[in-house]
Design a protein that fits this description.
Layout: E1 4-8, E2 15-20, H1 24-43, H2 46-62, H3 64-75, H4 79-104, E3 108-110, E4 119-127, E5 130-134, H5 142-153, E6 157-161, H6 167-179, E7 187-189, H7 194-202, E8 207-211, H8 214-226, E9 231-234, E10 239-243, H9 249-261, E11 271-277, H10 278-293, H11 311-326, E12 330-331, E13 337-338, E14 341-342, E15 345-348, H12 355-358, E16 365-371, H13 373-382, E17 391-393, H14 397-406, E18 413-414, E19 435-436, H15 441-446, E20 449-457, H16 471-485, H17 490-505
Parallel strand pairs: 5-6, 5-8, 6-7, 8-9, 10-11, 10-17, 11-16, 15-16, 17-18
Antiparallel strand pairs: 1-2, 3-4, 4-20, 9-19, 12-15, 13-14
The chain binds nicotinamide-adenine-dinucleotide.
Nicotinamide-adenine-dinucleotide (NAD) is lined by residues 134-138, 143, 161, 163-164, 193-194, 197-198, 211-213, 216, 219-220, 234-237, 268, 360, 362, 388, 430, 435.
């Protein structure tokens, strides 16, 4: 029987439309097509592939309003959030790769050691092949399109599975790629739940790029390991927000309100744990309470916070809050629910035994505690199994950079929050449970290609290491090693090299 994926309005919980889930045959066919289309796609130059990208970018601009309303239908987030985090971030990286990919992926000459006389060496970059991209619902456009285009520029073909929670955005992405004229089979979309995601790994893609929760990430990696398929995992976070007493407190307060409540806290790089230096904590909390009163939740005109995506997520947030309060946290703003909309919850006097500090809450909850000095701040921030992003606030930049170096995190923003993920020049990814691998920036593009190293010999005589072995050769090689790595002076070394060369050339 045909399976349907319902599109549900997160504000009301009502089903508004549906898309067809891919069946087994469609999944198999998609991978056959993907593997077939690879032949021609990988033979194009990087510059030629970038032309398709440019067309895609132009089509995003042409369809901007429609893309925004589709993402809104799927997620309920505010237009500004969609424009900034889904569209702008995607276009930034698309343009960055259009301009830089040919250089990042160009053939690179490498040095060749002296003993390989008359040789030269280089590295060239080859695609993995077919890449399965599995994406989450929270930034459904950016987190599907960015890995997909990066894989495509590298010469891979892509099969994307958008989240079943945001199927309309998945359809819109498919339409945009079709409109941009990518050759048939180069980019395809399969709609479905995690079951389709699992089957997409069983079809033996050459790489899996997964963004989502830690538990799903483990399943993806386990399944991929059976076929030795390389995986890249962009997983959850539990990011610290650290405010030193010498920070600009007004700015830090506003930064936190954004960092903790953007997309209603349903953000992998959301500020999930707040540490304020003891001397300024009182001032910080007073200002924070006032600032939180200004945040608008839902409604018909402009608002900052949209709905929480599903009932299950609301229950998890509630559980974290209630449990923290039972364990001694002080609730400074109540847990207030209006349908699927939640008001921000401010918690004081929290500690690291509470799940609200240990786990990813993924909601509008701001748990705050205090510290004294760099050592305690770093100790608290690193006391977590996660390591995605971090935010450090101080007017003393040297100190803040020192703290950033000590943090166990993939990314860190000093005196701001969250939007470092939007700098296309920087690699992005997590350490510890937050993931494996990097995308964005030159490193991110290179994670979708494999370096192939090539050496070319210009010699016409027998090589020194070739058979037959004899005592004279053994002595010469021992002399070579001692000359190369020994403590002899420069002139002596040169003299030895010349005599060695003669000995070795005279081998016959
Ligand atoms: P999720 O793990 O529930 O789902 C992600 C995707 O995996 C979906 O497309 C889903 O259908 C698919 N999936 C589910 N089970 C699968 C399986 N067994 N095999 C293959 N695919 C399967 O995550 P979500 O709720 O959509 O997203 C929220 C999570 O994603 C949060 O933890 C958040 O922190 C994380 N996230 C991380 C980043 C990052 O860049 N590190 C970015 C955004 C979101």
């Amino acid at each position: 029987m045909e399976k349907k994926i319902p599109a549900v309005n997160p504000a009301t919980g009502e089903e508004t439309a549906h898309v067809k889930a891919a069946d087994d045959k469609q999944i198999k066919d998609a991978f056959k097509k993907s593997k077939k289309s690879l032949e021609n796609w990988k033979d194009l130059s990087v510059g030629q592939r970038c032309k398709y990208l440019k067309r895609f970018r132009e089509n995003v601009l042409e369809d901007l309003e429609d893309i925004v309303s589709t993402i809104k239908e799927d997620t309920g987030k505010s237009d500004i959030e969609i424009l900034m985090s889904d569209i702008l971030a995607t276009l930034e990286i698309t343009k960055y790769y259009e301009e830089n990919a040919p250089d990042i992926l160009k053939k690179e000459k490498r040095k060749t050691p002296f003993e390989f006389r008359k040789n030269y060496s280089y590295v060239e970059y080859e695609p993995y092949g077919t890449v399965s991209v599995i994406s989450p619902w929270n930034y459904p456009f950016q987190l599907s399109v960015v890995p997909a285009i990066t894989a495509l520029i590298g010469g891979n073909t892509v099969v994307l599975k958008p989240s079943e929670i945001t199927p309309l955005t998945g359809e819109k992405i498919k339409e945009l790629f079709e409109k941009s004229g990518f050759p048939e089979g180069v980019f395809q979309v399969l709609q479905g739940t995690g079951e389709v995601g699992e089957k997409m790994i069983e079809e033996k893609p050459d790489k899996v790029f997964f963004t989502g929760g830690v538990e799903t990430g483990k399943k993806v990696m386990e399944k991929a390991s059976k076929q030795l398929i390389p995986v890249e995992l962009e997983l959850g976070g539990n990011d610290p927000f650290i405010v030193f007493k010498d920070a600009d407190i007004d700015r830090a307060v506003k930064g936190l309100v954004y960092g903790a409540l953007a997309n209603s806290g349903q953000l992998c790089v959301s500020s999930e744990r707040v540490y304020v230096e003891r001397d300024v904590k009182k001032e910080f909390m007073e200002k924070l309470e006032k600032e939180l009163e200004k945040v608008r939740v839902g409604g018909n005109s402009t608002y900052e916070m949209g709905p929480i995506i599903r009932e299950k997520q609301i229950e998890k947030i509630k559980e974290h809050v209630e449990e923290a309060v039972l364990e001694g946290a002080e609730m400074l703003t109540d847990f207030e629910r209006n349908g699927n909309f939640l008001k921000p919850v401010l918690l004081d006097k929290v500690d690291h035994d509470m799940n609200v500090m240990r786990e990813e809450t993924f909601g509008p909850v701001i748990p705050v505690t205090s510290f004294k000095g760099i050592e305690e701040a770093v100790g608290l921030a690193n006391d977590t199994e996660y390591g995605l992003n971090a935010s450090v606030w101080s007017e003393d930049i040297e100190k803040a950079e020192k703290v950033a170096s000590k943090l166990e995190t993939g990314n860190c923003y000093i005196n701001d929050v969250v939007k470092n993920i939007g700098n296309p020049h920087l690699p992005f990814g997590g350490v510890k449970k937050s993931g494996i691998g990097r995308y964005h920036g030159p490193e991110g593009l290179k994670s979708f290609v494999q370096p192939k190293s090539v050496m070319v010999s210009g010699n016409t005589i027998d090589e020194i290491n070739w058979f037959p072995y004899d005592k004279k050769l053994c002595k010469s090689i021992a002399k070579l090693i001692k000359t190369k790595y020994g403590k002899k002076g420069f002139l002596k070394k040169i003299k030895n090299y010349f005599s060695l060369r003669k000995e070795m050339l005279g081998r016959d």
